[in-house]
Design a protein that fits this description.
With 190 residues, this protein is mainly α. The chain has 10 helices and no strands. The protein starts with a helix and ends with a helix.
Length: 190
């Protein structure tokens, strides 16, 4: 069911309020009262939409993971594969404050886990290296993603010092070395 405009605006205010407070302290130390005061919304309105601050945070994460999934679905190993990846990176950069929070080492690990699952699933859909077993692909894709995640964490930490296009090109430039390593592995295992 589609939300009405007032509900959408109220939820956006609450999300913005929580994100602002998360810059200063961890989620378990943030109260509903603080969120509501910061958003200039009363507590009863908060409780119409959320059970607690954790549910609000979960919705922020859900929204982010959904957008990540949509962007990564556009990445292809054929044609202009940079486009979908660049769109995702541009989304990250334009929501820099959100990703600074979500990717902080001290933040809730569920976002990282969900981000990882979405990315690995999307990599698997690329049908990269047909001659590799699906079990091995899962290891390979998780290895690839953890490297990319490390790059993205650095990019966020460094204040998005490179453009989304530069980061996308950098990530994609590493794929040939992974392909070469896979071919070498096949020779060693043969």
């Amino acid at each position: 069911m589609k939300e009405n405009r007032r509900t959408t605006m109220t939820k956006a205010l609450l999300k913005d309020s929580l994100l602002e407070l998360l810059k200063e302290k961890p989620l378990p130390k943030i109260t509903i009262k603080e969120i509501c005061e910061n958003a200039d919304i009363n507590r009863s309105t908060f409780y119409l939409h959320y059970v607690d601050q954790f549910a609000l945070c979960d919705e922020i994460e859900n929204d982010s993971v959904e957008k990540i999934n949509t962007c990564l679905a556009k990445v292809s190993m054929k044609g202009n594969r940079v486009e979908g990846l660049t769109e995702f990176l541009a989304y990250m950069k334009s929501n820099g404050e959100l990703f600074k929070i979500l990717m902080r080492p001290d933040f809730n690990n569920s976002f990282r886990v969900r981000f990882s699952e979405v990315a690995v699933k999307r990599l698997a859909e690329l049908d990269y290296h047909d001659n590799v077993s699906s079990e091995d692909k899962d290891y390979i894709f998780r290895f690839m993603f953890m490297g990319v995640l490390g790059m993205l964490e650095k990019w966020v930490k460094d204040g998005f010092d490179k453009s989304p296009e530069e980061i996308a090109a950098f990530i994609l430039s590493l794929i040939p070395s992974i392909s070469a390593a896979l071919r070498k592995r096949e020779i060693i295992l043969a």
